[in-house]
Amino acid sequence: MKPDNRRPAGRPDPDKLLKLVENETSGSPRGHLKVFFGSSAGVGKTYAMLGEARRRQAEGRDVLVGVVEHHGRTETAALVEGLPVLPLLEIEHRGVIVREFDLDGALARKPSLILMDEFAHSNAPGSRHPKRWQDVEELLDNGIDVYATLNVQHLESVNDQVARLTGVWVKETVPDTIFEAADEIALVDIPSDDLLKRLAEGKVYVAEGANKRAAENFFKKSNLLALREMALRRTAERVDAQSDELNAAMGQNEAQLGQKIMLLIGPDPLSTRLIRHAKRMSVRGRAPWFAVYLQSDRHEQLDEKDRTRVEQYLRLAESLGAQIVRLSGARPAQDILAYAQQNGFTRIVVGYRRPPLWLKPFRATFAQALIEQSDGIEITVVHGATGQTREPVTAAAVIRPYLARPLDYLLATAMVALCTAIGFVFRDHTPSNNLAMIYLTGVVIVAARLGLGPSVLASILSVPAFNFFFTDPYYTFNFYDTYYYVTFAFMLVTSLVVGSLTARLSRHARLVSNRERETQILYGLTRSLSAERSVDMICEVATRHISEPFSLDVTLFVKTPEGLKAYPEGVTTPDMRETGAINWVVANGQMAGRDTDTMPSANGLYLPLLAEKETLGVLGLTARDNGHPFTGAEILQFEAFASLIAGALQRARRSDEAAESKVESENEKLRNVLLSSLSHDLRTPLTVMNGSVSTLLRMRKELPRKAMDELTSLWGQLTRLQKFVGNLLDMAAITSGHMKLNFQPYMIQEIIGAALGRVEATKGGRTLRTQISGNLPMVMIDGGLIEQVFINLIENAFQHTDDDGEVVIYVEKDADRLRVRISDNGTGLKDGDEARIFEQFQKGQELRSDRSGGTGLGLAICRGIVQAHGGMIYAKNNRMLASSDGMRSGTGASFIFTLPIATSFLTSQEI
Amino acid sequence: MADSPRILSIEDESDIRKFLRTTLGANGMMVLEAETGKAGLQKVVSQIPDVILLDLGLPDMDGMEIIRQIREWGRTPIIVLSARGQEADKVEALELGADDYLTKPFSAAELIARIKVALRKRNQPQGDAPFVYDHDNLRIDTAARRIQLDGEDVHLTPIEYKLLAVLARNSGKVLTHGALLNEVWGKHSTDNQTYLRIHTQHLREKLKDDALNPRFIVTEPGIGYRLKP
Fold first, then answer.
1. Any B CB within 8 A of A160 CB
2. Distance from A791 to chain B by nearest Cα, in Å?
3. What are phi and psi of A121, to 5 degrees?
4. Which pLDDT belongs to residue A826?
5. Do A733 and B26 touch (CB under 8 A)?
6. Residue B197 C-alpha, separation from nearest chain A C-alpha, in angstroms
7. How confident is the model at residue B84 (pLDDT cuts 50, 70, 90)?
8. Nearest chain A CA: its distance from B200 CA (Å)
9. What ranges do the domains of chain B cover?
10. Which of A843-852, A885-894, B131-140 has the highest mean pLDDT?
11. pLDDT in tens, A186-211
12. CA separation (Å) from A594 to A622, A631, A638?
């Protein structure tokens, strides 16, 4: 945890502003949540929600009714009319058909906005999530906007207040974090008198049967007033919080006075009240709050139930927006205060229970210790008064340490018998007092091995056994010496005390060794994983390390491009329910399955393997003895395993990627070297030959005619060779995907003009003209490459026309693209050649025999270049085209390509 | 041959050097040769050639570095020899101060023509000194700020005039887009090529020039513009 760094006042924080904007813009993939919030049933939330939904629908949005309970009220039912309604899913639970919201149906239908009445509803067992608000979260995550309704009493943080006020304990709650994260809250409010009137008129749904009385009790005016105040206050607080957020972003953070609250949590059930108290305090003070659990050595003494409870409390605090901190230390008060000082806490909230009267003079409570040592930090003590919802101390809880297997008690009795037997050996050689020590030794052994209960039994049995066998007169419970009273008393007290201490010590030692074992497993896993770089080995190591110590069946599902791959291989395919849970974990990056919030009915527990927010796979754990539930502490440990495995998988993937990209870059380097040396090696002799032949051609007067003819033919071949080499190198660049485009604005006429200059030499007797329709906007193109396209297409047209033929370039603007058509009046294309000629090394079949020109690469190059520009290129025979362009229809072919026009050039005036 | 122009070819391929020697020699030029960049730079200093033919792919030195070093102290025309498809290299070379480029393979005629332009440029006024350009009935007199086409006055906007004057002062030589923007609009406008296109287009209209079949202003795709010499 870092101390929060506040920016100097008055300076807007761009990141925060940006975040606010991001939250507001609908561009974010997450859906928008609007909560219709009211003080109680009957205020008209559903009605308001439906009314707004209809308006959205009228605006053209795709609205879907997910769940709406109109409880037979006609006004509400009328509003649902005309809106598409998602059919409810029928779930069979113990022979009863329960109708629930169909989450998968909604996700598949993917509306723009969905209506979810009764936000706090609990789903029937067997649903994916236990709570409807979790369904809503998933909808939002999938980019669907949600309207939901909520009553104030269903808010987690006011839950206990409402219970005390109305006497009705509401089990269906929504975490405050969810409520606070809503994008919009619409308060639906009517005066309490009006509500009572509506109630009297029967316009408010009231449960039937046994709940009816409770409900009537609920709708008392005093209650309604208090609830209304609560709702108004929560809404107002939210508005404040929002404006604070904005102010803080704008640099005006007077609102935040640097308050920071720490709540101390323990296994005491008082903690739930403390958590809600601290939450309200933080809302009112607009201060961040932290729930802290101190793992002192006393933590080791806690039984499983207490530890689970601590985890529950921490989770509750987290759901109410607290940050969770676990500290460990031997001196609770000092350690907590030191931590609070270092991290700038201003207030500590702690619970207090009055210790038993007889203990009071001896032991200061934790709260007292905190108060005495606090230096400038406010301490708020919440009194756990009698009469509060305190878990009653059951008889079972009291005698739990004494419960052991009957065999253990038998063994304890046997130990006493053994001690007696040993005593017989020494009875005549030593004073009887020493024999008492034998029993004491026996008690210690029993305590260490078998625990507290058997050791108490052994202590109690030891005294009469000693009396019976070793005090004069033997074999009676009488004794002559009165001082034996003292011996018996000391013997009993000493053995009880030593026994209980030993039992506690050995229990502690066991806990420590358990913990050490856990650490050992974690360490072993870390060490083994760090050596592995292959996914298979990582999975093998992980399953081996986890399955044995916990007697679990471990399966890993690793994401691959082909889907999830299960390890170990050949593991039996999990059934539908398990597969559903696994897929959900992959999609949502949260744990699911047994003993979690999502799909708790599954057999296995599934944890996401998360690395940098990406789910790399799933860790599936199934207990071999199916009865034992996973505790919070165990799940925490499994999460640690999952994160280790995810880290290892991530490393494996990284090293794969690194190796791949190394190969890739080596390849690219090699390709570039090869290309440029090829280019150099081919061009050098060509340049020399070109130079020599062209020099010779200039000496035509001095050379014999026959030599001139040979030279001219050589010149022609040389030109072809040059073109071929050029094309080959261009093609290599295009196919390797490493062609870099240098986009610049051009008037297409400029490019055509340059290309015309370049083809002048090969034109011969042909006519070459350009026809441009209308004004053309500029295009963003790589000038050199598009020039090459023109050259290739024009030369291709020359090759397929007679020496007196005609080639025409038509250019026109067609909506948002420029269309260029290069048309000739030659032989045209053979049927089926239209697409094929753009492949590499393909040539039209009907080449003029006297000009064996093409290399079969020119058109493929054109296609590569045009496609890289985002355009299209194709060929058609002229007879297939409308003959409105003045070309003689029926002869020749047209090569057509398009180039997209940038929007900025489309809208600007043509020049 | 005291008057014959001296051409320094910095080229590592002996075959190409041989071809240059024969071709240029046949056209009355004297050829100096250097096989490496270092030797070339030394000869530029010691022999003071009239034109430098520079191959960009020398084994010992980066061609751009050679141009930069020559331009630190001298204005000897440099013609760069490069391969097709290396437009970026050509633009860089031109912007570093090279005067022209030839794409391999090139013909003897092309080579001679480019060298002649470079030789002529050498004698032309530098900097802002007034000059007269006269080609194909287009007459530009910068001292009088007067443009005449086929004997008639042409009226240009200040930007068009500046653009034409820059092209005319360097007639025959390719000016890169960046160089033109810099000369006409100043340092900070080197990335808005749209301006350049629009004004070039207007200039062409006023000069009755056609981009499809240029009479004066030639487009060099991917590189820049050139005014016919």
1. no
2. 12
3. -55, 145
4. 86
5. no
6. 7
7. low
8. 10
9. 6-123, 132-227
10. B131-140
11. 888 888 888 888 877 777 766 554 45
12. 9, 11, 13
Q: Is CATH 4.10.910.10 what the domain over A257-388 is classified as, yes or no?
A: no
Q: Which two tokens stand for residue A628?
A: 């034992």
Beta bridge partners of A148: A35, A116
Contact between A756 and B213 using a beta-carbon 8 Å cutoff: yes
Question: What is the fold of A741-907?
Answer: Heat Shock Protein 90 (3.30.565)
Q: Which residue has the tokens 């040993």?
A: A422
Nearest residue of A to residue B205, measured between CA atoms? A911
Q: Which residues of A touch B218 (CB under 8 A)?
A: 753-754, 757
Run of H or E including A324: strand A323-328
User: With an 8 Å Cβ cutoff, are A694 and B198 in contact?
Assistant: no
Burial call A326-343: b when 16+ CB within 10 Å, e when fewer: eeeeeebbeebbebbeee
| CB of A714 less than 8 A from some CB of B | no
Rounded Cα distance between A226 and A230, Å, is 6
- B132-227 CATH pick, 3.30.930.10, 1.10.510.10, 1.10.10.10, 1.10.760.10: 1.10.10.10
Tell me how many helices (H) and strands (E) chain A has: 29, 24
- A416-445: per-residue pLDDT in tens? 999 999 988 888 888 877 888 888 899 889
Whether chain A has a CB inside 8 Å of the CB on B83: the answer is yes
Question: For residue A809, what pLDDT is reported?
Answer: 94
Give me the percent of chain A exceeding a pLDDT of 70: 83
Instruction: Look at the block and give the residue holding tokens 């813009």.
Output: A25
- Any alpha helices (H) in A736-782, and if so which ranges? 748-759
User: In angstroms, what separates the C-alpha of B104 from chain A's closest C-alpha?
Assistant: 6
pLDDT in tens, A155-177: 888 877 777 777 777 778 888 88
Q: Give the amino acid at A775.
A: N
Does the beta carbon of A600 lie under 8 angstroms from any beta carbon of chain B? no
Domain locations in chain A as residue ranges: 14-254, 257-388, 401-508, 741-907
Identify the closest residue of chain A to B112 by CA–CA distance.
A695
Out of A684, A778, A785, the one facing B16 most closely (by C-beta) is: A684
Predicted complex: ipTM over 0.90: no
Contact A694 B109 (CB under 8 A): yes
With an 8 Å Cβ cutoff, are A742 and B222 in contact?
A: yes
A499 vs A446: CA distance, rounded Å: 8
How confident is the model over A587-617, as pLDDT tens digits? 888 888 887 777 887 888 899 988 877 888 8
Residue A692, chain B, CB below 8 Å: the answer is: yes
If you ran DSSP here, which 8-state letter would residue A767 be given?
A: E
CB pairs under 8 A between A and B: 117
Residue A4 has pLDDT above 50, yes or no: no
Pick the residue of B9, B56, B91, B104 with the most A CBs within 10 A to test the interface with A by mutation. Answer: B104
Domains A14-254 and A257-388 in one fold: yes
Q: Which positions in chain B touch A686 (Cβ < 8 Å)?
A: 104-105
Residue of A770, A778, A786 with shortest CB distance to B194 = A778
Class of domain A14-254 (CATH, top level): alpha beta
Check if A784 contacts B (Cβ < 8 Å): yes
Number of other residues whose CB lies within 10 A of the CB of residue A260: 21
| CA dihedral of B42, B43, B45, B51, whole degrees rounded to 10 | -140
